[in-house]
């Protein structure tokens, strides 16, 4: 219809009421949010132009990176980060209302990161209960709501409990108080999402493969490229290149715009060192 703004389509790791759904709603309050069952499916949806943006979990403060997201972005996809969303994460154990009186469960289901964030709680409170991995926290909650006869439990957020009609039997069960997750908003084009509410600090994510001549001190040289230009790093992490044991690439977050003069100099020096650099672009942070 003439004059009507076209609604953006956003893929996210679903089903509804996942932590990723909450992050996607923060970045895109007025868009059409479409749930996908797995991280690769979310990413492929944007890579194949079926949606405008994909929102996927990247890293958790307690558990570290979500390897599927990092590896997919390095090995499989040519996408850009247009924003990151930082969200506080609260985990709750929930069951079907028919089973609130039960004091043991057939099994407890959740996303591997959620299970790991509640490791101590599960160890001390449900030592003999099988712990089962599921594709997402809300997917586990949905399954628990559909199978009351199985007396199973899920770990998910309070919106999932509400959405799927479950009763929370233990709240705030994550092992450490400061539990935040970082989500990436991905696009096929390199640009910055400038919706209202972002923070001022710009960040650039780079994936750096060092030269494979195995010379000593190469990581030191890579870091000095940033150090002497006073380019502040907020993260460095290694992931296997998958070409052989001991072969790694480095994910580096730099607190600068990739178009800044110092960054252009850094790219040139990294190339001169024989490094391959894949930039995921520069972006702002949103908090939910
Ligand atoms: O499973 C979910 O709800 C997700 O969105 C992935 C996730 C899992 C655990 C913490 C943060 C995000």
TrEMBL record:
GO biological process terms held by the UniProt record: L-phenylalanine biosynthetic process
PROSITE patterns: ACT, PREPHENATE_DEHYDR_2, PREPHENATE_DEHYDR_3
Pathway of action: Amino-acid biosynthesis; L-phenylalanine biosynthesis; phenylpyruvate from prephenate: step 1/1
Domain Prephenate dehydratase as annotated: residue spans: 9-188
Keywords of the record: Amino-acid biosynthesis, Aromatic amino acid biosynthesis, Lyase, Phenylalanine biosynthesis
Domain ACT: 207-282
Top EC class, one word: lyase
GO MF entry, a single one: prephenate dehydratase activity
UniProt protein name: Prephenate dehydratase
Organism annotation: Planococcus salinus
């Amino acid at each position: 219809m003439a004059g009507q703004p076209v609604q953006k389509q956003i893929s996210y790791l679903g089903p509804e009421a996942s932590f990723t759904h909450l992050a996607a709603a923060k970045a895109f309050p007025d868009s059409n949010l479409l749930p996908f069952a797995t991280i690769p499916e979310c990413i492929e949806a944007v890579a194949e132009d079926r949606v405008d943006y994909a929102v996927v979990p990247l890293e958790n403060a307690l558990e570290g990176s979500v390897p599927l997201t990092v590896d997919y972005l390095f090995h499989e996809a040519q996408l850009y980060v247009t924003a990151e969303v930082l969200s506080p994460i609260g985990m709750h154990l929930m069951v079907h209302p028919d089973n609130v009186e039960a004091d043991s469960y057939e099994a407890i289901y959740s996303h591997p990161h959620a299970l790991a964030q509640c490791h101590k709680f599960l160890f001390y409170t449900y030592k003999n209960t099988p712990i089962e991995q599921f594709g997402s926290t809300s997917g586990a909650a949905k399954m628990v709501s559909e199978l009351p006869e199985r007396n199973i439990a899920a770990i998910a957020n309070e919106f999932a409990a509400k959405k799927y009609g479950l009763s929370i039997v233990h709240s705030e069960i994550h092992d450490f108080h400061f539990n935040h997750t970082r989500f990436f908003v991905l696009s096929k084009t390199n640009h910055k999402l400038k919706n209202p509410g972002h923070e001022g600090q710009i960040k650039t994510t780079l994936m750096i493969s060092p030269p494979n001549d195995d010379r000593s001190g190469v990581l030191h040289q890579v870091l000095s490229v940033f150090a002497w230009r006073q380019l502040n790093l907020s993260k460095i992490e290694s992931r296997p290149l998958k070409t052989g044991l001991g072969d790694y690439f480095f994910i580096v977050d730099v607190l600068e715009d990739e178009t800044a003069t110092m960054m252009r100099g850094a790219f040139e020096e990294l190339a001169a060192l024989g490094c391959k650099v894949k930039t995921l672009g520069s972006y702002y942070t949103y908090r939910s």
